[in-house]
Design brief:
This protein is mainly alpha-helical and 481 residues long. The protein folds into two domains: 174 residues, no CATH class; 224 residues, no CATH class. It has 20 helices and no strands. α2 packs across α6, α9 packs parallel to α20 and α12 packs across α13.
């Protein structure tokens, strides 16, 4: 069930209405039931895997609480089972294919074909959520949950189930335990985020998708301009797609009186790679930092060991996104950017004039532009089907700067208009905050006017554009991870 589908448009009002009309003691069961219905709407049998992951991590918490002397054994079993499930469903074919390619390179015959393994949607997210709970219980930062239904509700909560945010137990379980009253301001904010997310997804990400696809599938015939347009189209497509999903997820949660953590904070305005990862997919980057990077030693070791820890963390973070060498290279690329940034900081300490320049407005603008360019180039590895395709697109970027079919497609689309509308929306929203204390009704009027405009835009333009059938909405990019 996709957030941008008619089916979800009918599902959500029923889910919200049932939640608020039921007594508090039944709300947990209601959330659990609708979350499993939501997940089973795609492939019903995959719900058994979600239940298995739930049981593993629930029992891990009980083990750690009951047998404190065997805590290390318990967490090792838990991590092994979680990663084993993830490895089988997500990486078995990748490892098998890589092995057979190596055999062929050495002159052997290809003996095995791909296995018939169906990748469960959202598996990377709910396994990471479950692992974070088990590790937090092991570290003593969160007390194990004894109520199985409460824990199952936490792990399966449908807004964040398929593509995050990657919620920690300490962020969500206390909210599920509390009978929070209905808050109109939170409900209105939820509707705003819901409409904003749909706007980003339907009118920006989905309109940029054919432009990026046209470029990445026709690499040999691209002009230099088309190659750059293709890369930038995907750069903004993945941002609007994923941040749009997160907005919808957080908006849906607010309709139930629940707050989910922020996952994006204007990442393309970051001044350096380190800041980018503090703004992009925040819940994943903090997960990797807290449970992988720090476990490897973090910043507590020698300089070279710190660099190694960064590279390992980002390389595994790249593979988390997908079972392909292009994702691994993308992760290594960002690891190198983080190492280079640390080297630059050391250089700036030795050259005070450069450090002062970077603190000026011009220096910040240069830093933002450079970081955006480096991140955009990295997305080429992320989007390309093969490593060779990525290199071919980079080569095409050095070609003639004449307008080709990809650029013409962009100019014929309404993407620039929709993007300008989004910028105007945020500018007006910031302006309305200044007068909220003096004229509260203006803020409420602006909220409802903005919601109406966003909703009408999505409905009208979804039906207006040929080929955008309501019955076949475009999936979110991160569903494949």
């Amino acid at each position: 069930m996709l957030f941008n589908s008619t089916l979800f448009g009918m599902f959500l009002p029923v889910a919200v209405a049932g939640f608020w009309f039921l007594p508090f003691g039944f709300r947990k069961w209601w959330l659990l039931g609708i979350s499993y219905i939501f997940y089973m709407s795609a492939v019903p049998k995959l719900a058994s895997l979600l239940f298995l992951v739930t049981v593993i991590n629930y029992l891990t918490g009980l083990w750690l609480d009951r047998w404190p002397g065997k805590r290390k054994l318990g967490i090792w079993i838990s991590v092994t089972l979680n990663l084993g499930i993830l490895a089988y469903f997500k990486y078995a074919n990748f490892l098998l294919d890589s092995y057979m390619n190596l055999v062929q390179m050495l002159g052997g015959a290809r003996e095995f074909d791909a296995l018939s393994i169906l990748l469960p949607v959202g598996i990377s997210f709910y396994i990471f959520i479950g692992m974070s709970y088990s590790i937090d219980c092991y570290r003593g930062t969160f007390k194990p949950v004894r109520d199985f239904s409460l824990f199952a509700c936490f792990l399966s909560f449908f807004p964040q189930l398929l593509a995050g945010p990657i919620v920690r137990a300490g962020q969500l379980i206390p909210q599920l335990r509390t009978a929070a009253p209905f808050r109109r301001d939170l409900f209105e904010e939820g509707l705003r985020l819901l409409m904003l997310g749909l706007f980003k997804k339907v009118l920006l990400a989905d309109k940029l998708a054919p432009i990026a696809n046209q470029g990445f599938t026709g690499i040999p015939n691209l002009t230099g301009t088309d190659a750059w347009v293709s890369a930038l189209a995907f750069t903004f497509q993945i941002y609007f797609d994923f941040s749009g999903y997160t907005d919808i997820a957080r908006g849906c949660a607010k309709l139930f009186g629940i707050e989910l953590p922020e996952n994006f904070r204007l990442p393309y305005l970051a001044r350096n790679p380190r800041e980018f990862w503090r703004r992009w997919h925040i819940t994943l980057s903090t997960w990797l930092r807290d449970y992988l990077y720090i476990s490897l030693g973090g910043n507590r070791r020698s300089k070279h060991r710190v660099y190694t820890n960064l590279m390992i963390t980002m390389a595994l973070g790249g593979l988390w996104h997908g079972a392909a060498w292009t994702f691994f290279v993308w992760g290594v690329y960002h690891g190198l950017l983080l190492v280079m940034h640390r080297k630059l900081l050391e250089f700036c300490e030795a050259v005070p004039s450069l450090d002062r320049f970077l603190e000026t407005r011009l220096g910040e603008a240069v830093s933002v532009a450079t970081t955006f360019l480096l991140v955009s180039l990295g997305w080429v590895f992320f989007r390309a089907d093969t490593f060779q395709d990525a290199l071919s697109l980079f080569a095409a970027m050095a070609g003639s700067l004449r307008m080709g079919p990809v650029t013409e497609t962009l100019l014929d689309s309404h993407v620039p208009i929709f993007a300008a509308c989004l910028v105007l929306y945020h500018m007006l929203r910031v302006s309305s905050r200044r007068f909220a204390g003096f004229y509260p009704f203006l803020r409420r009027l602006w909220t409802y006017t903005a919601l109406s405009c966003l909703l009408l835009s999505v409905v009208y333009f979804t039906n207006y554009y040929p080929g955008k059938a309501e019955e076949h909405p475009e999936p979110f990019i991160y569903f494949q991870f």
